Amino acid sequence: MGFKSFVNTVDLAKKIMYYYVKSGSIAIDCTVGNGNDTILLSKLVGKKGKVYGFDIQPVALKITKEKLFKENLDKRVILINDGHENIDRYIFNEVDFIIYNLGYLPGGNKSIKTEIYSTLESIKKSLYLLRKNGLLLITCYTGHEGGLEEKEGVKDFLKELDQKEYSVLKFNFLNQKNNPPVLFGVEKL
């Protein structure tokens, strides 16, 4: 797999994706960014699966589309230029896996970033779309303006989910400096 389990939340999320997402799965990348998760998901779902990718920035979708074409994965992915809070306008069937990387586009304009209210709206809708035993991963970055508040809002929302309906885990690195990201995992029971 080419990565270590506990280096950072990105590698941990990838390890979970490799374990969980199977050929034929339906997955959603709610924050496409530079396309790394979208590419990995499109490989994991195989020819029979489907990946939906959301981003509000056309540049993020352009970068991802080029990567998908280069690897001949474009037929497995539907890229959507809209906010993830509008997920219910595009997806009507149950899905197996959903991932978020909150914050801003790496290398992009840092003032364009996810916001707590639209993120929570999206998470609520995503939980509804998840099939039984479906998995939702959310990586929260806290080192930018608004990031800590967004993480706290996500945490407060997730901890109120009914434990009879969802299992919620929080992964954070206690000994890393400079505001390490936090990874939340939610399984629909």
The helix-and-strand class reads: alpha/beta
Strand content: 15-25%
Question: Could you say which overall geometry the principal axes of the C-alpha atoms support?
Answer: globular
Q: Please estimate the helix content.
A: 25-40%
- Report, as a whole number of angstroms, the end-to-end distance: 28 Å
H/E element sequence: HEHEHEEHEHEE
Plain-language structure description:
The chain has 189 residues and is an alpha/beta fold. It has helices at 9-20, 36-45, 58-70, 116-129, 147-159; strands at 26-29, 50-55, 77-81, 95-101, 130-140, 166-172, 182-188. Strands 3-2-1-4-5-7-6 form a seven-stranded mixed β-sheet, sandwiched between helices. 41% of the residues are buried.
Task: Summarize the structure in short.
The chain has 189 residues and is of the alpha/beta class. It has five helices and seven strands.
Tags for this model:
seven-stranded mixed β-sheet; 7 strands; alpha/beta; 189 residues
